[in-house]
Amino acid sequence: MTTPDCYTCGKEAEFDDLPPRERVAHDRHWRVAHALDTAVPGWLVLLPRRHVAAVHDLTPAEASALGGWQVRLSRALRGVTGCAKTYVVQFAEAEGFAHVHFHIVPRMADL
After folding, report:
1. Distance (Å, rounded) from C-alpha 23 to C-alpha 34?
2. How does pLDDT run across 80-95, given as a tens digit for each residue?
3. Which residues contact 60 (CB under 8 A, 6 or more apart)?
4. DSSP string of 44-83?
């Protein structure tokens, strides 16, 4: 299910035509994209592939896969960027962005 006024759902509707930065990795429940307009190299966004407005609305299958994605992406960022750790944050309040999404943000040792 997609919501017409949702930025993320609009991208999902165009999945096959998305540029590589919008589909870094994916499975049937989740899609990974590079974040736009950030000063932090490697900043990723993990998005459910159907419209979900709140974490409590994730299906059991989506919830089960979530932790695995967050850990794999954090490990990949450490391997690629050399970051000391990653921060995982979730906001879904901005108009047009009320679709649950998790930011996986690498934090370098010198920050």
Report:
1. 8
2. 999 999 999 998 777 8
3. none
4. EEEEESS--SSGGG--HHHHHHHHHHHHHHHHHHHHHH--
Supply the pTM of this predicted model: 0.92
**What is the Cα 62 distance to its own chain's centre?**
13
The residues, ordered by sequence, that sit 6+ positions from 44 with a Cβ below 8 Å of its Cβ are 24, 32, 33, 34, 35, 73, 77, 103, 104, 105
pLDDT digits (tens, 9 = 90+) for 27-68: 999 999 999 889 999 999 999 999 999 999 999 999 999 999
Q: Which CATH architecture best describes the domain 7-107?
A: 2-Layer Sandwich (3.30)
Strand 44-48 and strand 85-90: pairing?
unpaired
Residue among 12, 4, 59 nearest 31 (CA): 12
